[in-house]
């Protein structure tokens, strides 16, 4: 059987593609290597309120809401940011992804779980996919393939697509600890080089705890957990996972009959490492371009080039600005970060940030801080 679309990967961006393309009348098949959609995701599951509003997402997956954030410096200085409304939700990823899968299935998409795609072959006539299902290799064909494989870049390399410029390395754990009721972030290059740590409450003492770091994530996570235990009492870790996090623009995200979406295309916030919202946004652009290609019955790289142009126009500057700022931040010593804290706590900067704060869009705030506040002067001295 020749499918219209094969989607490889059952995360949010792939499932949203499957939903919208099925809704448009195309014959869609989704492969996911896990036994259950949303299973074993290494993700804190923080999704901004804008995503829920824009994509009319079900709120059944919400575990907690985020309004306030505590940020702690390397030397223990505290900034408490209180947003006037809900900034984001903490979600159960299994339920969140299962809802997106339900939408796709309701429009006629087919799904194969426990099916790992081994190889992809693209010809002038079709895309041929070989998948391993319960130890048996099977062949499937489609007019177009959508790569939504997360941080698995095997097919990017196979099809000569681009790769992220850089990576951070993330750790995320489900744990139990008493006395933490506000999302808390620790920053400092002695604790999480190039990034930060976090503790996000869920309910009944359960939290998501993790960090991103430029190197040695296991070492720094162990160090962070010891620090938390010393300050707050016993930390009971139930599960922990590790993954790379894409940083910077991916140069090429489409080719003949193939489009990459989500983390596979580097569509990740370089400031926080979150990829759900950007993946959903860009999956809608992918759908738009694919539907145009079906109307013209043209599926070559030229037909898909509009996708590259549109998604980079949408979020490219966000990714580039965040990546540049992260590289600047990674050069700071802990003492310089402490100085930055003192600047941020003075001069009415918290009020300045509150007025410009958007959970998923950071470029305007970052540029405003650099161009119009003492933070800009601080970084100018560092660069010199």
Automatic annotation (TrEMBL):
Residues 3-151 form the FAD/NAD(P)-binding domain. It comes from Desulfofervidus auxilii. The keyword Transcription does not apply. One of its GO terms (molecular function) is oxidoreductase activity, acting on the CH-CH group of donors, NAD or NADP as acceptor. This is Geranylgeranyl reductase, plantal and prokaryotic. Transmembrane segments: none annotated. It comes from the Bacteria. Signal peptide: none annotated. InterPro entries: FAD/NAD-bd_sf, FAD/NAD-binding_dom, Geranylgeranyl_Rdtase_fam, Geranylgeranyl_reductase. Keywords: Oxidoreductase. Its EC number is 1.-.-.-.
